[in-house]
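Message: Study each token:
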Amino acid sequence: MRWIFVLVALFGFAIAFSAKTPGTLGLGLVLGLICLFGAFFGFAAERVASSARPDAALLTDKDLNVLRASMRKSAPTTQNAPPTQSA
């Protein structure tokens, strides 16, 4: 879809450059700019989606609760104890 936006934007700018009336010029510029923004956001969305983590790799609520429980169990009890000095 983003490549179609690029082609339509080029077509719109071609219409604007070859226009003989102000209405055609305005129509070509508006068409070109709107499709250019659409192509820009399409390419940006594809770039973000290519580096995003798939939903299947995300942890579920059950996995998070198990992980939190295991972190609480393995926490050392002498966490706030003052350091000992060895001579």
